Amino acid sequence: MSNRKKILQLGTYFVAIIVFLIYIVPFLLILITSVKSEAESKIMDFTLPSTFHFENFITSFNEGQIWRGLTNGLFVSVTVTFLTVILCSYSAFIMQRHRSRFTSFTYKYLLAGMIAPFSFIPAIKLLQILHMGNNFSGLIMVDLASQIPFTILIYYSFVHGIPRELDDAANVDGTGPIRMFFQVIFPLLMPVVSTNIVLTFTNIWNDFGNVLFLVPKSSMWTMPMGVFNFQQLYSYNYALVCAYITIALIPVLIIYLLGQKYIISGMTTGAVKG
Predict the structure, then answer these.
(1) Per-residue pLDDT reduced to its tens digit, 114-126
(2) 92 with 150: CB under 8 angstroms?
């Protein structure tokens, strides 16, 4: 191995270690703080507690109303993920296969949504006009809209690599466009669908801003909003907050670990085929 390759390899390992530390250090801080007493937790450092308070997890589970946040979060995340997969995959297929001025404009318009800033005030007013401000439908629609631009992009690139001969063969057999898509094309999109599911679910599950501004009822809060249950007069009980965050991370970690191999493979395959 040449010296240049060795230097590049060492540089790759160094960058990988830095990225690993960026992610693992905050998690370790949260994990250590979650087993401290309330007084010790106010100084958030890596010092081990004098006594491990594992009961913080039980307390946060009971007082944080985790079951309510869990069911609300799963309902919103699963619904948005399902709608994103179906709508974006079919829309990307139509835009890629039936190119026209209208589909070209629509594609560019949707991609502009990746850089356009989101404004809460018009969104809140629109939801009030549509009578969607006091239920999950408004939150789901806003979350769905935020996921569409990037998701359309990755599906569009992937569909580009699927031969058009498959469409022609299905048309010869008398298959309609919707049936043809779901029976012929959609199964071929499984790598990018898996990527879409993991990324969308984790994004919606961890969403804080939309829930904070668009959900007026505490009974509709998802998991990230549960930290407000530990708010005191002028501060938080950070031990319980960190215990709650640790519990809230478990579903995301499970989804990510189950689908992590599809994230890179799906995105790189789509990029190469695009």
Answers:
(1) 777 677 778 888 8
(2) no
At position 7, the amino acid (one-letter code) is: I
- Per-domain boundaries in the chain: 59-273
At 125 the three-state DSSP class reads: helix
Please report the beta strands in the chain, taking only residues with DSSP state E, as ranges in sequence order.
none
Amino acid 216: pLDDT? 75
Please give the C-alpha separations between residue 89 and each of 66, 147, 166, in angstroms, as whole numbers. Answer: 33, 12, 17
Using DSSP, how many helices (H) and how many strands (E) does the chain show?
12, 0
Residue 231 three-state SS:
strand
Rg (CA), the chain: 23
CATH topology of domain 59-273: MetI-like fold (1.10.3720)
- Closest listed residue to residue 248, CA positions, set 267, 227, 268: 227
Q: Which residue has the tokens 């501060």?
A: 235
Indicate the pTM of the whole model. Answer: 0.78
